Amino acid sequence: MKLEKATSKDADKMLSLSKEQMKCYFEENSLEWNEDERTSYLKESEIFRILSPDFSGYLQLCEKENELFIYDVQIIPERQGQGIGTKVVRRVFDIAKERGMEAVRLGSFNSNPVSELYKRLGFKIIKQNDYFTWYRYAIT
After folding, report:
1. Is the separation of the CB atoms in 88 and 50 below 8 Å?
2. Which domains does the chain have, with CATH numbers?
3. Could you tell me if 72 and 59 are in contact, meaning their C-beta atoms sit under 8 angstroms apart?
4. Is residue 140 helix, strand or coil?
5. Are 57 and 48 in contact (CB under 8 A)?
6. How far apart (Å, rounded) are the C-alpha atoms in residues 65 and 81?
7. Is residue 104 within 8 Å of residue 136, measured between CB atoms?
8. Alpha helices for 2-139 (secondary structure H)
9. Taking the complete model, does pTM exceed 0.85, yes or no?
10. What is the pLDDT of residues 94-112, one digit of tens each?
């Protein structure tokens, strides 16, 4: 698995993939997708293409207060269930260590099966509401 810096041309593709794959979670929780908000997140983030070995999705990262935030990870449907997400998150741990970060943080809808992956990889729950959980992994 390789992460390759995305270009500005990838931003629309990433938003489209994210919107399509997250649509069910927004609908089941009666939430609205906010395109302007998502676009503003992209402007403050690093975007990577996930290659495993060919295009498999996108990763969106942001540094804040000495922590590395995973804003979004999207694996294309035909590549899901192949361990790519695990490899991506472990690579993010490495990036955080290389940058001297204290932790990696992310959030996930409670009904998203990927939440189990985050727990298996050592993330701790730091906040939770009826539909969403925020996680933190301390870099040691």
Report:
1. yes
2. 2-138 (3.40.630.30)
3. yes
4. coil
5. no
6. 33
7. yes
8. 10-28, 35-43, 84-98, 114-120
9. yes
10. 999 999 999 999 999 999 9
